[in-house]
Structure formats: structure tokens, C-alpha cells
Amino acid sequence: MQIAVMGFGTVGSGVAELVTNNSALLARRCGVDSIEVKRILDIRDFPGSPFEDKLTKNFEDIVSDPEISVVAETMGGLRPAFEFTAACLKAGKHVVTSNKELVAAKGDELLKLARENSVSYLFEASVGGGIPLLRPISRCLAGNEFLEITGILNGTTNFILTKMITENMPFGEALSIAQKNGYAERDPSADIDGADACRKTAILASLACGKHVDPDLIHTEGIRDLNLEDVRYAHAAKFAVKLLGTCRKKRDGSFYTIVRPALVPFTSLLSRVDGVFNAVMVRGDAVGVTMFYGRGAGKMPTASAVVGDIADCVCLGRNTKTGYGWGDRDGSVVSDYLSEPVSLYVRGLATDRAAAYDELLEVFGSNRYIYVGDAPINEIAFITQRDSERTLRQKLGTLRNFSVKSVIRVEDDI
Ligand code: HSE
Q1: Does one domain contain both 237 and 201?
Q2: How many domains does the chain have?
Q3: What is the CATH number for 372?
Q4: Is residue 156 over pLDDT 80?
Q5: Which residues line ligand 1 at a C-beta cut-off of 6 Å?
Q6: pTM for the whole thing?
Q7: How many Cβ atoms are within 10 Å of 200's Cβ, its own excluded?
Q8: Under DSSP, is residue 336 helix (H, G, I), strand (E, B) or coil?
């Protein structure tokens, strides 16, 4: 059985190494005589690489080769990954990928093409790195209606937050270690500003609701504006600060879908997920709560997920399809996030402390106040009661004796 890899970067080189090093056990588990990498596509040269004889710059060497039946797309980005993937599917080749940007943007089109050509388009590595997640959701939990999927979906930001909080490491230093370890995107602002977690949330939401959820519809906030003062207040109130992606089914059938930093109670398993690890909580109507945990980024964990998909395709053989994925896009699936009931952590400065407390009581009713040692004398931090986010933000906008410095959503129930 011959496969090809498109893109010889961090993940692609991991896939080539893993398939080659574990070729015999992979073949045995898939019930074939052998599995080997026949071609690797990349526009760059890799002199001295053990895969030098397999490297090509010509896509035709892969798409027109009838011996290659599975192609791993690890190029990243939309173009030319979309055109290459579409051409491989049309040529009757299974395609597996770690490219969450492409799956989130064009999954509906590529899944349709795969169905039309009786092949599979699989993307286990696109969410949660090495964690087996999409196949369990699609197969093991197929009998469930999904009520909520919430997770820590970006390894880079979780790594940075952990280093900043536990080692007092400056943001830039933590980011540069994440880059050296191969966790970060080529443009790390996709990690920091939440775009990567947004794409993964869109993929999970699409699987949960069966329609393609456009990532552009998902309200997204990253960790750029988080500061250590807020982390200290959060800890004093027994919360950790985590970047979470959520899709939660509402009574009207739409989904509250959002990516944002959130206060997670110490009692939640998610609060204890540190470093490059990701964790995803899936709540189904039959199974209740399940948790998936593992390395969310990095060369070999991600390669592990890609190779798992390759194994599935090899087992399936030609002219078959796994049949999981989703249908056409539907913008009405995503609800207005501002209408969701939330409680907010708020930190700010009082112009007059007593007047501010009076006003906060009048506007919000009873808040939960948080105190830390050596805070500035006029600083007040509190957690509001639950109300729609729109109402709470409008109320914050009316305050005269208190200027808001930070607002973070609180997730009490996870
Ligand atoms: N940059 C991504 C992350 C890679 O840090 O999670 C894995 O998708």
C-alpha cells in the first residue's frame, strides 16, 4: 500500500517518519502486506533528508499515480491545499489532513466531493492534536444528540498561559519556546488571537449539528489582552483562566458558539489542563459528560492522529467512504452570543470606593467581590450574577463611579 504526503513541514515530516518507522506494525494492524510513503510533495529542497529520493515538486507525481491510494495533506493554509485536495479526491484517492483552516473553511465542499467519489476525507488531526476526538464523537457517540462541546483547543496559548502563571515567564519568552517546540502556527497571531481555536470550534460545531458552521460567524477573543492581575484575582476566587471554545445547544435548536478566555472553577477538570495539553468535554443526551485529554500540538502527537486516519483509509480500501462529516452550510445554526446568559468577572477602578460599591449594588444587585493582597486601593473586582451578556455589558456602560479595566466570562458549570 503506497501513500503520499503533501507538505514536508513539522507535521508532514512527522507523518513520513512515523509511517516509515512503524511500517510493519501499521501494515499488520491494517491487514495489508506493507505500507510505505512513495512520494512527498514540497516546493523546498531538503538536502541530506532520509526522504530525499521521495521528494517531488510536481503535484502530478501524486495525483496521477494509480499506486497511491491515500494522500496526507499537511501543507496548511487554504491555497493550494484546497485545489490539491479536491484533485486527489476526484482522482479517487482518500485524503487525510491536519489542516484545520481548510476543513473549517471548505469542509462542506470537500466532504461532498469525497462522497461523490466514494472516498474519505478525514481530519482527526485538525482538532486536539494527538487526542482521538473526532472519530469517537462521530462513531462511538453517534447515538447521542450533542448538548455541549467545550474545550481547551489551542496548545500554544495553553502552554503560554501555564508558563506565565506558574513560572512568571514573560509572554514573548513562552511564545518563543512554543514556536521552538513546533506548537505554534506559522503566524502565531492565529494562536494568540483565537483564530486557530475558532477553526477547531467550527469543526466541532459542524460535527455536532451536521451543518457546516462558518468560522467567521463565531465570536472569537484570544489571550492578547489577558493580564496577570486578572489571573491573581481569578485564583483568589478559585478559578483558573483558560482559552475555551464552546458550542452548546440551545432550546431553539441553535448553538451558542464562542471562543474566549474564561474563568474555569478549580473543581472542573479543565482547570487542571496545563502546558501543551488540550482537553475537550463532550456532553451527549445519552452518555452524559465525557472528557478527552492529550497533547494538543506538536510534531509526533499530530502525526499520530494523521497516521490513524491513514490506517482507517487503508483498512477501508478503494471506492469506500467512512460517511462521517456534515452537510451544507447554514448560518442560522449560530446564535447571537450576546443573548446568552453568562456571569462576568469584572475588574476596575473606583473614583470613590464607597460610591462605587453603592452603585454596583444598585445596578447589579449582589455581586461576589474578590480580594487580593496589595491591590491598588481603588481597585475593585467582582463576579456578577447571571444575566444576558448584552444586559450585563449595557449595565457596565452606565457606571459613573467605576471605570472598567477587564471583563472575563465565568464558566461556572463545566
Ligand atoms: N498551533 C496549534 C496549537 C497547533 O497550538 O494548538 C495544533 O493544532
Answers
A1: yes
A2: 3
A3: 3.30.70
A4: yes
A5: 129, 154-156, 183-185, 191, 196, 296-297
A6: 0.97
A7: 27
A8: coil
